[in-house]
Amino acid sequence: MNVRLERATSLGLKAGGAAAVMGLMNLVFNVTRIHLTATERIAFGLLVPMASFALFFGLVFALAFFFPPSSSDLSRGLSFPGAGKVVWPIVALLTASTVWLVIAKR
């Protein structure tokens, strides 16, 4: 496996794992507000972490693979080619949609 693929996989696994844990914790802490049967709770307990992992792994892996850092060592000051054209607009869109969902669900 080349270095670019290894780093993209590593970053994707870390982000996907963090998202899966956050999705599971969100489900655990909000399960009393959601009226589900025991079977539905088990299904959601398996589905939510897997879906969160898949979504964030795919997003982070694709961005890290197609827009790798310009140097071989990872640090805070790396410039990513295409970050201004692709990555930051995606982050801005995701942030705006999250704000809209929070306001709409109030």
Description:
This protein is an all-alpha fold. The protein has one domain. Helices cover 75% and strands 0% of the residues. It is built from three helices and no strands. Helix 1 packs antiparallel against helix 2. The longest helix is centred in the middle third of the chain and has 29 residues. The mean pLDDT is 80.
> Terminal Cα separation, in Å?
47 Å
Tell me the structural class. mainly alpha
Strand tally, please? 0
Major β-sheet profile: none
Q: List low-confidence stretches.
A: none
**Structural domains: how many:** 1
The H/E string reads HHH
Determine the strand fraction and express it as a percent band.
Answer: under 5%
- Mean model confidence by pLDDT: 80
Helix content: over 70%
List descriptors.
mainly alpha; 106 residues; single chain
Summarize the structure.
With 106 residues, this protein is mainly α. It has helices at 3-30, 38-66, 83-104. The longest helix has 29 residues, at 38-66.
Give the arrangement of secondary structure elements.
Blueprint: H1 3-30, H2 38-66, H3 83-104
